[in-house]
Amino acid sequence: MNKGIVSMNPPIRRHLGAFFTLQNVLIVVLVLTLTTSTLIPLILLFSKSLLNKNEEFIGLANFVQYFSTPSLLQSLTNTIWISVLSTVLAVVLAFAYAYGISRTAIRGKSYFRYIALLPLFQPTMMHGIALTYLFGNQGMVTHGFFGLLPGIRIPIYGPIGIVISEVIYLFPQAFLIFITALSMTDQRLYEAAESLGANKWKTFFTVTLPSVKYGLISAIFVCFTASFTDFGAPQAIGGKFNVLATDIYKQVIGQQNLSMGATVGILLTIPAIIAFAVDRFVERKQRSLLSSKSTPYRVPEGRARDRFYRTFCIIVSIAILVPLFTIVFASLVKVWPYNISLSFKHYDFSSVAGSGLEPFWNSLQVSLITAVVGTIMTFVFAYLIEKTRSLKGLRQVGYFLSILPLALPGMVIGLAYIFFFNDSSNPLNWIYGTMAIIVLANITHFYAVPFITATTALKKLDKEFELVSESMRVPFYRTFLRVTVPMSLPAIIEIAMYFFVNSMVTVSAVVFLRAADMNLAAVALVNMEDAGDVAAAAAMSTLIVGTNIIVRLSYEFILKKVKKRTAAWQMPK
Fold first, then answer.
1. Other beta carbons within 10 Å of 321
2. Beta carbons of 128 and 528 less than 8 angstroms apart
3. CA separation for the pair 367, 378 (Å, rounded)
4. 57 has which bridge partners?
5. In angstroms, rounded to a whole number, what is the distance separating the alpha carbons of residues 200 and 217?
6. Residue 480: its pLDDT value, please?
């Protein structure tokens, strides 16, 4: 039957010829768009690292200079060991936390899941600011909670503060990977281990760890790359402890040395590219972990085990909540730590941001536009790559360009956009310094994950929809709007939420691109922290987190309604 549908008779092909032509045109537009927004700026960035300040070709001289400059080389060393330590701590904590939720019978699992995701809604600079209020020179812990307890002094400015901030930032990313990996284990393996007389520890090392090894590898590389490329935490609490991300900022903003900034940017990209390759490898391996005969894991009884993991999850959840509550409290205190009466005066940003709440409204506008435009672009492009059948080679190029942003740190994208869009000979130069380039940078920065989400949702839809539509002479865009979009609404809503939340908290991709007269909330945090207006930064952080939590709750409510409406007519696989 399928062959008969695919091999349509000539009259039907002639009737649909215009629509096939339109598909081909859209695929070409897809590839050109991704090439312009991702590939060309990246190539230009690499070429700039081979030039000096006068745009003269000097080969690898910038790299030689970098590695022969002790202070710059020290930044690379600092970045590596900070990333390694942060990754180890985050991966261990996240694995234990995910294990406690998925492999025990503790109560409150939904609560622990939501708490684990909270750092995703927070700018990374916020963690550093919270640590300042807790362990800084005038911090609550440093002074024993305003003299009520003995004070504890911790040298928070520098590597210790950066590592703690990074662990909070990395924890939810590793948790999401582990909670998925642990849910894919086959119960029959545990039954086999038990029948062979293996004890709990031996079963853990011979069954549990091997079953999540690909998730473990993925989590390690994801966390290392995220820490390696992070700008917010080192900027907020690093003090004089330099890392690669802050080096780029200083080279570009402080010294206007774009060539050296490009050089550091390439160094920043190397671990991301490795992580990208590993992630692709791990994804392919994980597909074969479960078979149709696999049975879900059944939690055995174990009261002592449950008490231990419940206590552990409570401690971790408190460690996540304390910085958040600290920020909210600090934003309401009149003069820290001398006058702790509550006030909303720090939410009047006119004296620090120069334009009141304008940075926040700008971020809200940018995030909404990014969510709408990014979702439409992502889903349409994913549909063209996944569901059309012509121009296979070009569609494969489009797929590669779609997942390429996974290997690009935000600061690299921002720097590449300076080189590309700030060129007066570029016909797209007009968007430089406008809100449009910030929206484009955000879409490019976060495009890969929504694209993978969209293609995953589209793979679940039966191919017969498109084939039957063609046989009935129905244009592909009508099938797309009336069938594909309604059946993929949960994924579309998730994509929109992902774009919005990340656009609200990002700094690295847009810190180089905003115009002088258009600030953004997350970038305002950098400026406030630099100027010493930490209370105002805490207030702005609170607004960002509050907005993202509201968006997340709205997402859950809308998703529940959508699933209820679509569950009745979606065909089971």
1. 12
2. no
3. 15
4. 51
5. 23
6. 82
Distances 568 to 378, 459, 563 between C-alpha atoms, Å: 27, 20, 9
Strand-pair partners of 335: 339
Terminal-to-terminal C-alpha distance of the chain:
19
| Stretch 325-333: mean pLDDT | 90
Cα angle 424, 426, 428; round to 5: 110
pLDDT tens for 54-112 read 777 888 888 888 888 888 788 888 999 999 999 999 999 999 999 888 888 888 888 99
d(CA 374, CA 93): 33
What whole-number distance in Å separates Cα of residue 372 and Cα of residue 497? 10
Instruction: Tokens 């940078």: give the residue.
Output: 441
418, burial (CB in 10 Å: exposed 0-12, middle 13-18, buried 19+):
buried
Going by C-alpha positions, the residue among 140, 142, 167 that lies closest to residue 330 is: 140
- The DSSP code for 149 is S
How far is 282 from 284, CA to CA, in rounded Å? 5
Size of the chain in residues: 573
pLDDT in tens, 338-388: 777 888 888 887 776 556 788 899 999 999 999 999 999 999 999 998 888
Q: How far apart, in whole angstroms, are the C-alpha atoms of residue 111 and residue 101?
A: 10
Model confidence, pTM:
0.84
Q: How many CB atoms lie within 10 A of CB 409?
A: 26
Counting Cβ atoms within 10 Å, is residue 174 exposed (0-12), middle (13-18) or buried (19+)? buried
